[in-house]
Design goal:
The complex is a heterodimer of chains A (380) and B (398). Chain A is α+β, with helices and mostly antiparallel strands and 380 residues long. Chain A contains eleven helices and ten strands. Chain A folds into three domains: 105 residues, Acyl-CoA dehydrogenase/oxidase, N-terminal domain (Butyryl-Coa Dehydrogenase, subunit A, domain 1), CATH 1.10.540; 109 residues, Butyryl-CoA Dehydrogenase, subunit A, domain 2; 144 residues, Up-down Bundle (Butyryl-CoA Dehydrogenase, subunit A, domain 3). In chain A, the strands form three sheets. Chain A has a four-stranded mixed β-sheet with strand order 1-4-5-8, covered by helices on one side. In chain A, strands 2-3-7-6 form a four-stranded antiparallel β-sheet, with no helix packed on it. The longest helix of chain A has 36 residues. The radius of gyration of chain A is 21 Å and the shape is globular. By secondary structure, chain B is an alpha+beta fold. In chain B, helix 10 runs antiparallel to helix 12. Chain B is built from 13 helices and ten strands. The chains are: A alpha+beta (380), B alpha+beta (398).
């Protein structure tokens, strides 16, 4: 057993930390939020140059042979800076599914340019009725000549407005909520019949509602096997969850550091408020929570490559439960200890708090993953 | 001792309900149930209707133009109005400065200020907190220096709710900088139109503008606007805070929040059914429902003591603490009920009249912003930490 980072991993951590610190000051971030895309192409080009877009992929897929630990390292620093570039939808979800299920031709056409920074993806899985059930899919793909025709609705699709390709989870057989009968399609974001309603999210990212009205795609648009996408999706989402957990640990470190600094400097009753024991203990609980979050994230990152899907799923759900709990505690505590300042838009803490809150809601909240973990653990 | 309503009280509740249905604008009511922000007119038009009926200053004794209601009537009034979707009565005039004026003011001051408060013709805001005086309110620095028959006021107030709507502000100012912190403070009424008063908006985390900084730069205030004696303003301040802490528990709106949450759970889809089929979720609603009941009964016990002539004691701080936690929890559960569709930020659906259809269900747009915004409830009106200090010292003697 060895839980220390290699020299290369330490270098990666340093360069990601530097990126977040230099490019994502509070004021810079505000400016990036206000741009049309909501992220900066020059930052994305830098990710490609630094090798971050390919680091987690195998060398035969054109990557640099890293894995979940590399993703964890970078995502954590992204969390510290509240980085806005669409790394999760493009690289972790899109790239991850193409690497896992794509044909050689698809990898050459999609993954290679993604690693070079020339293609971005979005993953459209959610529908109005889905909540957190990945199999609750009613968007239909029907056979049309040699290809397929897609009709239906997808919601809260992150990065859809910037993506070159949308990876769509569609029903090709079976009834709604049946895991069997789902298929993934790679759809050109500009395809005829595909319309978007774009909006910002609470935490200043970009997402869209998508309507598919008889969108035609060729047979080569199918990613993986027809009717058998569910295991691919479940694994990809588990990996995304672990990446999100890493981002959340970065958010927690940042929000705790800001709060610690605040209670050391803000004076009331003639002393820094950090002199009051009730705040000291709360601050200690924040640090303990962040430690637990880090531990569970590390464990999940180490287990996510396990061949047994149950081990993988339990690790992802377990970490998500912890992140939900710790994120809420650190976020709410930071706001409380900042007093009125904590609920204003002017302070970084409120932005970290929002991101932590949205991370809990993404791909299943604390309660959902507690139930999922419990069911898996009881079945064993 | 009993909980049943007398026929007279039942008739009273019916009368309040009929009044609300007749006088509350449907647009305002719709904002309440869809979680939209009210604009100034939503509040003022409704408050003027209440004022005309003689019900705006509903906690006041008859002597000062209030209805002189008993505790049960006040309780029914608040609950029926919340059920009917009325905006809360902005407390700054009728609940805060009004009682201070009729308790500590001169006859002239009562005649001058109380009618405008009762009718809602004059809007008030509260100048208490300052950048360096939040939890430590007595540390306030805004200075008022007497010059002939005026005070010259300089300083900054902050977190001033609805200062941008206010005609008048009641301020705690320092009139004697050499005395102990609590002993050199005075309670002063300032016309917001006075030269030297500047209001700067503070934008909250949900994007809303409710609170402000108020800058006071050589503002000339006539001496007759002083309430009570010079340097004895802390007595008024404490009297007002005790009243504030009582209403701030917001029990009627939390009851409405619980019933709206159950309604949302009944329509939010999950696994082919609804969230209402999920015992893990409905148990959390039940838990907060019971907490609301405990809080309501505790508040009724305090009101009952007051009805016997007692004053609200320091134990009302516990009501404020629990009331804010409950409001926060209801907002949190409501956001969780919405799930992934709480993520889109839809300011248009929160702040403006719009014909746009919301993204996701109708109840989605306010869910997350309300959760973020409700964090303020354990901070304003004396933070939870301060309230607990009060209870441990004044009630428990620690």
């Amino acid at each position: 057993m060895d839980l220390s980072l290699s020299d290369e991993q330490k270098q990666l951590q340093e360069s990601a930390e530097r990126f977040a610190r230099e490019k994502y000051t509070f004021e810079n971030r505000r400016k990036i939020v206000a741009t049309e895309r909501g992220w900066l192409p020059e930052n994305w080009a830098q990710f490609a140059e630094l090798g971050w877009l390919g680091m987690a992929f195998s060398e035969e897929d054109g990557g640099y042979g890293g894995g979940p630990i590399e993703t964890m390292i970078v995502m954590e620093q992204f969390g510290k800076g509240l980085v806005l570039e669409p790394f999760l939808p493009t690289v972790v979800l899109g790239g991850g599914m193409i690497a896992r299920a794509g044909s050689a031709a698809q990898k050459a056409a999609l993954l290679a340019p993604m690693i070079e920074g020339k293609k971005q993806f979005a993953f459209a899985w959610l529908e109005r009725q889905s909540r957190y059930n990945l199999a609750d899919v009613s968007l239909k793909a029907t056979k049309e000549g040699s290809g397929w025709s897609l009709s239906g609705h997808k919601g809260v699709v992150y990065n859809a407005a910037s993506a070159d390709e949308i990876i769509v989870l569609a029903r090709t057989a079976g009834s709604v909520r049946e895991p069997k009968g789902l298929t993934l399609f790679v759809v050109d974001a500009k395809a005829k019949g595909l319309s978007r309603r774009d909006y910002p999210t609470q935490d200043a990212l970009r997402a869209s509602e998508l309507t598919f009205d008889k969108v035609s795609v060729g047979a080569d648009a199918v990613l993986g096997k027809v009717d058998d996408a569910f295991p691919v999706v479940e694994e990809a989402v588990d990996r995304a969850i672990v990446a999100l957990c890493a981002e959340a640990t970065g958010c927690m470190d940042a929000i705790n550091a800001a709060t610690l600094e605040y209670i050391k400097t803000r004076k009331q009753f003639g002393v820094p408020i950090g002199k009051f024991q009730v705040l000291q203990h709360r601050m200690v609980d924040c640090f303990t929570n962040a430690q637990e979050a880090r531990s569970m994230t590390l464990m999940a990152s180490l287990k996510i490559d396990d061949k047994d899907p149950t081990v993988r799923a339990k690790a992802a759900s377990g970490a998500k439960v912890q992140i939900g709990k710790s994120g809420k505690f650190c976020g709410q505590s930071a706001v409380q200890m900042h007093g009125g300042m904590g609920v204003t838009d002017e302070m970084a803490v409120s932005h970290y708090f929002k991101r932590l809150t949205m991370i809990d809601l993404m791909f299943g909240n604390q309660q959902h993953h507690l139930t999922r973990y419990s069911n898996l653990a009881m079945a064993a | 001792m009993n909980l049943t309503l007398s026929p007279e009280h039942q008739t009273f509740a019916d009368e309040v309900r009929a009044f609300a249905r007749e006088n509350l604008s449907p647009a305002t009511r719709e904002k309440t149930f869809s979680g939209k922000h009210y604009d100034k007119d939503d509040h003022i038009v409704w408050q003027k209707a209440l004022g005309k009926k003689g019900w705006l200053a509903y906690t006041w004794p008859k002597k000062y133009g209030g209805p002189g209601w008993d505790v049960t009537q006040r309780f029914l009034f608040e609950n029926v109005l919340a059920e009917e979707g009325a905006p809360r009565i902005l407390p700054f005039g009728p609940k805060m400065v009004g009682p201070v004026i009729y308790t500590f003011g001169t006859e002239e001051q009562k005649e001058r200020f109380l009618p405008g408060i009762r009718s809602s013709d004059v809007s008030w805001c509260q100048g208490y907190s300052e950048p360096g005086a939040g939890s430590d309110l007595a540390n306030l620095r805004t200075r008022a220096v007497r010059e002939g028959d005026h005070y010259i006021v300089n300083g900054q107030k902050t977190w001033t709710s609805f200062a941008h709507w206010g005609d008048w502000i009641f301020c705690l100012v320092r009139t004697n900088p050499d005395a102990k912190p609590q002993e050199g403070i005075s309670f002063l009424l300032i016309d917001m139109k006075s030269p030297g008063v500047t209001v700067r908006p503070i934008i909250m985390t949900d994007g809303a503008h409710h609170v402000n900084d108020v800058f006071l730069d050589n503002v000339k205030v006539p001496v007759e606007n002083l309430i009570g004696k010079e340097n004895e303003g802390w007595t008024c301040a404490k009297f007002l805070l005790a009243n504030e802490r009582l209403g701030i528990a917001e029990v009627p709106s939390s009851k409405r929040g619980v019933s709206m949450l159950r309604q949302i759970a009944r329509i939010e889809p999950q696994d082919g059914g609804t969230l209402a089929d999920d015992p893990a979720f409905t148990a959390q609603i039940a838990d907060i429902d019971l907490q609301v009941q405990a809080l309501e009964m505790s508040e009724l016990r305090v009101l009952s003591t007051m009805a016997q002539g007692g004053a609200p004691g320091p134990e009302v701080s516990t009501l404020k603490v629990r009331g804010s936690e409950i409001q926060q929890r209801i907002a949190e559960l409501t956001m969780e009920a919405v799930g992934e569709y709480a993520q889109p930020y839809q300011p248009g659906m929160l702040f403006h009249d719009t014909n746009e259809t919301p993204i996701g269900p109708d109840h989605a747009p306010p869910a997350a912003p309300r959760y973020f915004n409700m964090r303020k409830t354990s901070i304003y009106g004396g933070s939870t930490e301060i309230q607990k200090n009060i209870v441990s010292k004044m009630v428990l003697g620690l």
